[in-house]
Design goal:
The chain is α/β, with parallel strands linked by helices. About 45% of the residues lie in helices and about 15% in strands. It contains 10 helices and 9 strands. Strands 4-7-6-8 form a 4-stranded mixed β-sheet. The protein has a 3-stranded parallel β-sheet with strand order 1-2-3, with helices on both faces. Strands 5-9 form a two-stranded antiparallel ribbon. α5 packs parallel to α10 and α9 packs antiparallel against α10. The termini are far apart.
Amino acid sequence: MVLPAHNEESTIEAAVTAARAGLSELSVDGEVIVSASGCTDKTAKFAEDAGAKVVVAPKGKGEAILSGVKSARGEIVCLMDADLDYYGETPLVALLVEPLIQGIADATISNLYWRPMYPDQWLNGFFAPLAGLLLPEILPKVGSTPWSGQRAARRSLWPDTLPSGFTSDLAITLHWNQHATQLRPVLTDDWFNPIRPKPELLQQDFRLLVDHAVSRGRISAAATPELESWFQHINALINSYDEAHPDPMGYERNLFETAHRELQRRVLRDFRE
């Protein structure tokens, strides 16, 4: 169990306790590692008091993940956000790891059924239409929360390098899409974690996804200006969302349809050289 944490002194004890409960549910001899990323509070002390091993990492989620995974000894590594409250009856750790123990998956991503508007905009306006064009095989593998920080995989599937920030979650997903034999979404129950605005993240995720597709020969580099034009249009549409919208579900559906239609109009005609 690896818990990346940056100044999470108020939640880290509960997160460690939940991770230990998941290991107990699985009846495995595992360890809980808190990767304290640039912490200036008592996260490390409270984690140790709760029974976790603590490693010190540079600031940044990607840095925290890399440091935590590197220090882990198990054949299976499960990642969990340190500020997540999970309300399901079965511990989330057990749900993510059990398919690996059974041999029906070598990597899993939590498919969390409750989501606030922002990640649904990310899914419907950006990821589903763009990945559906560039990496269509990825969509059935990752469920509706491919950005989730709650995931597990065999040790060999964890990448050696990651972006330092929050786009590391998407980087892992793209890596697993390429290298995992059986990547599966795992339907999970109710949860909560704080919404922290990340205005720069969508642009970073867009660039990461497009660069990955170019490197794999899924699209010509010559088509990226049209993709950038599409992204700027959709990003402006997402940013114009009014929280008083009378039909959020209808908005999400229309957002996907608009993003998909615009992608076809702007890009598909020049999709390949």
